[in-house]
Give the backbone structure.
Amino acid sequence: MNRNFQKDIDLGLSAKNKTLPSKYFYDEIGDALFVEIMNMPEYYLTNAEFDIFKNQNQELIKALKLEKNTFFELVELGAGDGTKTKQLLKTLNDQNYNFKYVPIDISENALNQLKKSITKELPTVQIHPKQGDYFNVLSGLQTSNHPIIVLFLGSNIGNLTDERANDFIQKLDYNLKKEDKVLLGVDLIKPKSVVLPAYNDAQGITKRFNLNLLTRINKELNANFDVNTFDHQPEYNEEEGVARSYLVSTKDQKVLVKGLDKTFTFQKGEKIHMETSRKYNDLILNGILAGSSLKIIDRLTDSQHLFADYILEKY
Ligand code: AVJ
């Protein structure tokens, strides 16, 4: 993990167009900031998907073709704090479905908190957390012959470029068997006036979320980033349906990263690409599914049609 971190940070800061992987946002401070983001008025994604899980969980169960007498495994990639999933778990549990819940997250900290809260709120739900990177845990999926439902919510897939998302889908597809399902939550393409504020909130929480990765590099790789010399700059390209966040150096400066034994030079106005957040429609999603045997069989949206949970089935 630490080795990968070191290598990825080096690669990103050494690139002609500097970039840092957004998956490293989620240390303990990053997890807490992300919880704050989900509670911000501008960040409509979480409320919209929560609306689906709260008000349409019976429709979700039906769309997933779940059966009460067949044991299944609910595997959640990037489970986070599990607020949405708990709505579904509660209904499944109340209605005597026979299943186990396997939340997977890159953050050990988030998983520990989730396990605690599930054990407390839903003591009869079987929970088996696993720590890891999505790409790496996929190969461990198919160890049994019962049905698997993969939950990949919150538009987490949107952090991947379309090419990487397609790779991910191929790998997921390869590790599933016929009739397994994927519940894929994605943010829908919509006007800039709605999307941009979600990444540029009035309180500056998203800015702190981005800057926290520089602080993490300071701590873990013994660097000397001065976070006060970087501005937060989110952009949204409406035709493409892609939001991108950048940190912009406000002056010419050098940053020493002792853990890499390197100095990086920043020009005034130079950007570090921090995150890509893709938005979707059927056409784009079908492009990402192309070449796999995962097909869209259903789609639920919130009352305002901001967000969609797609149900994919392996053929
Ligand atoms: C958790 C990846 C869906 O891209 O919208 C929120 C992360 N970044 N605000 C997103 C995030 C800035 C979020 N995802």
